[in-house]
Amino acid sequence: MRSTVIITLLLLIGLPGNMYAQTTAADSLISLGDEKFSNGNYTEAAELEKEAIQLYLQNGDSLKWAMTQKDYATTLIAMGAVKEAVDILLELDERKIKVLTNEDKASIKKAIGYAYRNLEQYEAAQNYYLEGLELLKGSQDSSDIAGLYNNISYTFSETGNYEQALEYQYEAKRIYEKLDEKRSLSRVLNGIFLSLMDLGLYEQAEPYIRQSLALSEQLGEPRLLDIAYHNLAWNFENQGKRDSAIIYYRKSLELTRQLGNPYEMTQTLNNIGGLYEESGDYENALAYYNEALEANYQTDRPVSIGHTLRRLARVAIQNNDLDNATTFYEEAQNWLSQAQAPRDLAMLYLDQAELEIIKEHHQEAKRHLNKAEEIARKHNFKGIQSRLHTVRGQLYYEQGKLRESLGEYRKAYRLSADETVTGKIGPAINLARSYHRLQSDSAFILADQAFTFIDSVRTNVAGLSFRSGFFREHAGFYNEVASWYITQKNQPEKAFDLIEAAKARVLMDEMAETQQKVYENLDEATLIKKQQLAKQIDRLHRQIEQAKSKQQRSALQDELKDLEFEYQTFLNEIHVSNPALHNFEYPRPIALEEVQDMLNRNSALLEYAFAENSLVRLLITNNSISGSVTDSLGQTDAKSFITEKIKHLRETIIHKKQVDSVKKVGEELHASIIPDLNQQIMADISNLLIIPGGPLIFLPFEALSNTDRYLIEDFGIKYLPSASIYPFIKEPHRTTNFDLLAVAGSGFEGGDGLVSESRSEASFASLPSALLEVDSISVHFSKSKILKNEDVTEATLKSHDLSDFRYLHFATHASVNEESPSQSGLLLSKKADVESLFGEDGHLNSREIAELRLNADLVILSACNTGMGKVVTGEGLIGLQRSFLAAGSSSVMVSLWSVFDRSTSVFMAEFYEHMLTHQEEDYGLWEQTMQWLEWHEHPLFDYKANALRDAKLAMIDHPYYNHPVYWAPFILVGK
């Protein structure tokens, strides 16, 4: 108290004597501090300002002391120390320093308002801004007045008064343009952009943020650039230009981490988390949301905390954790009740209404909807009104009020007319579904609109995880409408078009890009950087696997999260900057007529998809198509029934239950999923091409039973991810210098050193029969290479030109990583020291496989679970077969569960013997001549498919290995 009084007296009366030198020194410190502040070096700026404050105090320069205190507080705000800044500014405001002009006092009021704005205390902020304007009443246009106009506008926009906000912002813009103050003009342009975006005026908003960014880039100030990058990214995201959104969010994240201000960091973290949430990657979404929440808790900002809690609740709902979702929403409501944030509160009420609908608490949902409606109408929140009608339509549907539901969805659809493309998709889908429930043909018109919107933005992002993830949200709707065409219009041909439009689209995109060689024009530096980032990600995954403590694992996961986003950003930078990629015309799904041309009179195609919980099934021959939709089986919806039966069949086989038990479960599944085949149509059919979907991806159809016979005994069977990728799969019988490269991964030891008969992924046991397997295979070929024992390393494998081999055979362990599919792969070696010398880790993952260049007719993965992986709606299985097809292999043989070492050796010997026999029959001199003349058409079922069937039939007759556990897991995928 005593020191405060002394300082006040000194400032009121000043100190006698000439302190010119000290003043000059202090002025120099301030000049240097301003420079540091502009460059984002806030800590150094604050230290210089503190030193200057002491010199001004010693000199008795009360004016410069006060103004430097204000600047120091502003720097503290930039550092995130807002509460400390508030204390300094309030104390400064209370002092009666005579030398301060009204302009000086107004600038202090503005600084206090800005501090309260950062704390999201908008009423307090507004009061101080108004006090500042009162002090400047009657003054001519000045930077001080424009600054107050700009700042006070945010307090109006945050509380829903956009008309008043824009009035202040446009006036500030006028003054700043008149004064040519670029820094301040950049800020007010950003504010106008935000107000217009909140009003749904997206086209009008974009020029303002672009002009703001241009000014920020001229000035080169990190803080201005951070704000401009973030908001431009948000603008791109709203337009569905996710590639550009990712790039600019990454730029913002780099700057905001550099600046270290938690107040500005949280928005970018939330929005990046939102990208992952939309793509279905909830693990990464949670990582970013939790980081944002931790930063928010440091600031005590109620609106920002509430916003992040709402996002966490959404992820909890996706994970079916409704209790945690409820808790998050309740905490968000507690925080938002402390603030004036009507938009956020209304959105929260809508979130809670949706949750209560899921819980079937309809009265609670209605109560939340009414609260949201009251706020939306009061403030004319058009975007919120659209969502309000959507949620109310959902509530009416759950209550069985279909007409009322339709009315609400119509209102939402009308309000979406001014939205960006991404904002129009949901309302169109909801209205289409509502019309369908009333059997109206308008459903198909609205569905086509939705498909147009979806297709217009589907490829506006690069990278498998993001492109497949964003599409997955809508892919199920394609299947749903396909089921409508079958049940309501009896048009299975239209259903086929839609089902194909929702299958393996990213794989088809990637294979089309490879076919057109669009990546071959990338410069060496770009390719090197891409490879380095990928290697760093692989290294972190290995380190996480070996982490010895939870703390170490957590730190590595944080590092991995940011590195993966950096990698995705780099892929999108390539996508945006490379004209061949950015303007690439991606292929349309295959036409029915093309598929029927692929099929001969002996082959049929069975394609499956799931529309919500209903099974959609198509049977196509070379001259016919039929379709059916199964909603339920017994008392259970079709999807749940089939999922459970597949699980039961797999367990029955894997646990080597009696063959009669296997066949009984197989018969139940056969009756459920194999159509009642028209005898006239199927009389000549001997081959089935199966395109599975959903849980059927993990079903070995060969093991289904009918009249005590396995399906493989009546039909040859092979698989495709979709019919549309068939033209993009490389043709077999390409010229190679060698026949076979076989790899035997025998150098793995189980935990107890004993040899395990089962190739357990968990134990990675030694594989003694793998050596016998590759040796017995190699005798069939005159030009072969064998890698075994010490020769089996990732580095050694990559040292070979793999495009030189017609057949690649891997008898080694595989690992399946459903959380990070790019990390699924083949375990070639545990010789970490040797591998690291060549920059490898002994794990050939799916990303690395896809980047290989192969000319193989067939890749055989004679290992555990190589046919497993992550299933993504709209993309299907993201597994190893996908990577080998993308790398150029014509076909891939994989396994659907952990296979037995000794029996697999026997099976493979059978397969190769039959394969070479069929190859001589199917591809003789005549066929080779036609191939040379480019007149040869490869049969859909060729020597490989025929050999696989023969090998399975031989195993069924084997005295020891006739159980399906030995032969059923192996399936053939491709051409």
Automatic annotation (TrEMBL):
Repeat (TPR) residue spans along the chain: 266-299, 386-419
InterPro entries xref list: CHAT_dom (IPR024983), TPR-like_helical_dom_sf (IPR011990), TPR_rpt (IPR019734)
Signal peptide: 1-21
Pfam families according to UniProt: CHAT, TPR_10, TPR_12, TPR_8
PANTHER family cross-referenced by the UniProt entry: RAPSYN-RELATED
Location of the CHAT domain: 664-975
Coiled coil: 530-573
SMART domains in the record: TPR (SM00028)
Keyword Transmembrane part of the UniProt annotation: no
Organism name: Gracilimonas mengyeensis
Keyword Disulfide bond: no
Keyword terms of this UniProt record: Coiled coil, Signal, TPR repeat
Protein name as annotated: CHAT domain-containing protein
Domain of life, per lineage: Bacteria
